[in-house]
Amino acid sequence: MTIEIRQGDLTEVRADALVNAANSSLFGGAGVDGAIHRVGGPEILQACKELRATRYPRGLPVGEAVATTAGRLPARWVIHTVGPVHSPREDRTHLLAACYTSSLAVAGELGAASIAFPAISTGLYAWPKLPAARTALRAVREAATSVEKIIFVLYGEDSYQAFRTAAEEESS
Ligand code: AR6
After folding, report:
1. Could you tell me the CATH number of the domain that includes residue 93?
2. Cβ pair 135, 99 in contact under 8 A
């Protein structure tokens, strides 16, 4: 398994699966979720609505993941996962790690060879970037997965640097 860290826009990345930092409603939102629905088109929202009506009437739980079509995106699937909102009072690291491992499990079931992740929970959900990057890298490295290539696609320079720092810490 190889891990790549790059700066860019997730919606422009070619990979079998693109991971969406969604919310439990699965009905879209701002940030990367907004970009995925905007670029991917209405087919994705339609698939999300069907999932709500069938498998997740009360919403997708935090830390779980589910796949839909990728619509017009340059991918085969979008895997939606719900990150935890950062809390100064409660350690929710295990839930953030679960987003990565459950997305990889879904990707493995689908037969995806490559997957691209954003920095889940580090935008609206307010997770500090470096701890989130450490958790993301540790989770994917420790996962028993059939996915061959994992790409972290970081939107801003600060996110990108946080992932670079976390990767350097691991290798030192
Ligand atoms: N490509 C890659 N990363 C992006 C992109 C993009 N096009 N756009 C933003 N990011 P966020 P969250 C980065 O807020 O914190 C939504 O409304 C962004 O800079 O998208 O998990 C959902 O519906 C940040 O580093 O997700 C939920 O309600 C990272 O992606 C809520 O936000 C995650 O930021 C989820 O919040």
Report:
1. 3.40.220.10
2. no
Q: Is residue 10 within 6 Å of ligand 1 at its C-beta?
A: yes
Q: Give residue 49's domain range.
A: 2-171
State residue 108 phi and psi, 5-degree precision. Answer: -65, -45
The residue whose CA has the least distance to atom 23 of ligand 1 is 29
DSSP state for residue 10 in the 8-state scheme = G
**Cβ count near 12 (within 10 Å):** 12
Q: Look at the chain and report how many structural domains it folds into.
A: 1
Residues 103-116 pLDDT 10s: 999 999 999 999 99
Which of the residues are catalytic?
A: 33
Kindly tell me if the per-residue pLDDT of 28 is higher than 90: yes
The answer, yes or no, to whether residue 133 has pLDDT greater than 90, is: yes
Beta-carbon count within 10 A of 167 CB: 17
Q: What is the mean pLDDT of the chain?
A: 98
Q: What is the pTM of this model?
A: 0.98
